Fold this sequence. Notes:
Layout: E1 3-7, H1 10-13, E2 16-23, E3 26-36, H2 52-55
Antiparallel strand pairs: 1-2, 2-3
Amino acid sequence: xDLSVGADGENSGDGAIWSLLGSSSGVTxxxxxxxGASAVGISTTGYPYVGNVMAD
Length: 56
């Protein structure tokens, strides 16, 4: 089972998401990825709060 975590207040309200892969022994950081608003083309004007739905 994989695990994704959102932190809408990260980076001054721009938000961020981390995705950790699962393995037979549990969640691992090997191959983990993280990204914020600008990395996926979302404007950082104002407070986009990327990951908001995941954080609630």
